[in-house]
Every structure is written in structure tokens, then in C-alpha cells.
Amino acid sequence: MSERKQGGCLCGNVRYEVTVPEPHYNMCHCDMCRKWSAGPYMSVHCAGDDVTWINDTGLRWFRSSKWAERGFCSTCGSSLFYRLANQPEMMLIISVDSLDDASGITLQRHIYADHQPDRYAFADDTPRVTEAELLKEFGLEPGDG
After folding, report:
1. With the CA atoms of 3, 84, 107 and 134 taken in that order, what torsion angle do they form, in degrees rounded to the nearest 10?
2. Which residues pair with 81 in a beta bridge?
3. Which end of the chain has less Cβ packing within 10 Å, N or C?
4. Which residues pair with 28 in a beta bridge?
5. Which domains does the chain have, with CATH numbers?
6. Is 51:92 a contact under the CB 8 Å cutoff?
């Protein structure tokens, strides 16, 4: 069941509206996402061309790997988005905590579970996907990033 939601950064210089197609989020434990968000990155996936920008004056993108870009607010520094660099319309991954109302969105799976540090653990029984398993889903090889 898809639902239209609004969200944005801390200061309001990035505001968006998006259709969230599935009420689920992934929790990424890869090194880049943990540095990007100061912890595991919890995100919902949607079509990249299904975002309506209410305010994008503060939105900036930087290339974080061979295939990906990350979007943030240049004013307040909020970490907001992840997308495929060469196909931005294909998929936009949005920080679940940037949504104004994330109620009803539940954890679907942990990704890069083999990168999760020993210093934290989650008491849930959701599937855990390794780096190799996730890259295979996208037709990529370890080290491509």
C-alpha cells in the first residue's frame, strides 16, 4: 500500500513529498552509511522520479562511490538521501527519520549485516543480508564501490 508523505531536513531548506510504495525500511550497517548518519542508516526506498521538491534550495549531492551519490542539506548538514549516480530517476533511498511522520513503517531487513560493529545489537528477528548478497541483488561485485 503506497502512501504520500512529506519530510525534510532539520532547518527546512530541504523539503519534499514522496510516495512510499511499501511501509518498510532497511537498516544499513556498511561503513559509509554509519559515517554518513552517525549510526546505522535507516531508509525507505522509492522511485527517484516520484519526489516533489517543496524546497530544494539547500540540497547538495556528493559522489560517495563509483555508483552512488548522497544528498544532504548544505545549511544544517542533515543526511537525507542516497541514489544511483547514473540512474537517479530509478531509485531514491530516503532517511526514514527525515519523514515528518514515519508511523507504520517497520523494519524489513538489515543490510551489510556482516559490517555491523560488535558495539551494538538489535533484538529483532528480521532478515540479515550480507554485503555479497546485497551486491548480487544489484548485479555488482564487492570492491565495485
Report:
1. 140
2. 71, 94
3. N
4. 41, 111
5. 3-137 (2.170.150.70)
6. yes
Alpha carbon separation from 142 to 116, 132, 138, 139 (Å, rounded): 17, 6, 11, 10
Residue 119 to residues 39, 116, 127: CA-CA distances in angstroms?
11, 8, 20
Write down the mean pLDDT value for the chain.
Answer: 92
The model scores a pTM over 0.90: no
Give the chain's length: 145
pLDDT tens string 40-89: 999 999 988 889 999 999 999 999 988 899 999 999 999 999 998 888 77
Report d(CA 101, CA 11) in Å as an integer: 17
| Percent with pLDDT over 70 in the chain | 97
